[in-house]
Structures are given as C-alpha cells and as structure tokens.
C-alpha cells in the first residue's frame, strides 16, 4: 500500500461536519470553531498561545497586537470570524431543533401509547366475563 491510510469512519472528532464558508484555509475554520465552542476569544495573528487575559494585559500596557493596525487585515479577520460564528450558530440551532423535534415525537408516542392502552384496556374488560365452564 502506498501513502497514508484513510482514517476510520467517524474519526473526524466533531459531532457534525460544518461548512464554514469560503476564503478560509484548510483547517482554519475548525481551529477557529474550537475557540468559539470553548467560549474563548479567537486569537489574532501573533496572539496564538496567549490567553485572553494575557492579551488584554499586553494591550493595556500599550502593546499593539498584530492585526489591530491594518484595516484591511482587520476586515478579513472579522469576515472570517463572522463566517465561523454563523456556521456555529446554524449548527447550534440545528441541534436545538433536532432535540425539540425529538421531544415532540416522544410526547406524541406517549399519547398514542396511552390511547392504545386505554382502548385495549376497555376492550379486555368488556370481553372478560365469567370464565367458561369446565368441559
């Protein structure tokens, strides 16, 4: 066999395969989404490896972090972040709708079971009379 082996099915790591839109480099959307899912700020260029508190301290001291000086790069970063946020919001909404539909289905099934049980339960009582005489 030549080349790497294919990963086993379902080895993607995530629950779903999200579409983060165009103009993102391979893996960039997934990496940004990992920060969003963890509730963290997406680091800009030069900030990778620092957490939000460290970055804030550097900015308060007076450091200008990379990417905050160039309006075009800032616009690109904002667009990419918005693509990721939108994809994550869509995924969260889809999961919420799935859970809501599942809950509604369960409620309907339970009502149907009660209806069947009550209908069959009444039918059994009507048919159940005195036991037949022994032969």
From TrEMBL:
Question: Domain named NF-kappa-B-activating protein C-terminal: which ranges?
Answer: 18-117
Please name the GO terms of the biological process aspect recorded for this protein, alphabetically. regulation of gene expression
An annotated Gene Ontology molecular function: chromatin binding
User: One GO CC term of this entry?
Assistant: nucleus
Q: Which InterPro entries match?
A: NKAP (IPR040466), NKAP_C (IPR009269)
Compositional bias (Pro residues): 1-10
Q: Where is this region: Disordered?
A: 1-24, 113-135
Q: Which domain of life is it from?
A: Eukaryota
**Which family would the database say this protein is a member of?**
Belongs to the NKAP family.
The record's annotation in PANTHER family points to: NF-KAPPA B ACTIVATING PROTEIN, NFKB ACTIVATING PROTEIN LIKE
Q: What is this protein called?
A: NF-kappa-B-activating protein C-terminal domain-containing protein
Tell me which species this is from: Chlorella variabilis (Green alga)
Ranked from the top, the taxonomy reads: Eukaryota, Viridiplantae, Chlorophyta, core chlorophytes, Trebouxiophyceae
């Amino acid at each position: 066999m030549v080349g790497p082996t294919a990963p086993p099915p379902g080895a993607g790591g995530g629950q779903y395969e999200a579409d983060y839109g165009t103009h993102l480099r391979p893996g960039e959307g997934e990496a940004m989404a990992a920060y969003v899912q963890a509730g963290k700020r997406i680091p800009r260029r030069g900030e990778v490896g620092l957490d939000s508190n460290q970055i804030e301290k550097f900015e308060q001291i007076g450091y200008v972090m990379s990417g905050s000086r160039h309006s075009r790069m800032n616009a690109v970063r904002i667009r990419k972040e918005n693509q990721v946020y939108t994809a994550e919001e869509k995924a969260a909404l889809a999961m919420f709708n799935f859970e809501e539909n599942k809950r509604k289905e369960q409620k309907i099934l339970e009502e149907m079971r009660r209806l069947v049980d009550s209908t069959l339960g009444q039918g059994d009582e009507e048919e159940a009379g005195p036991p037949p005489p022994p032969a």
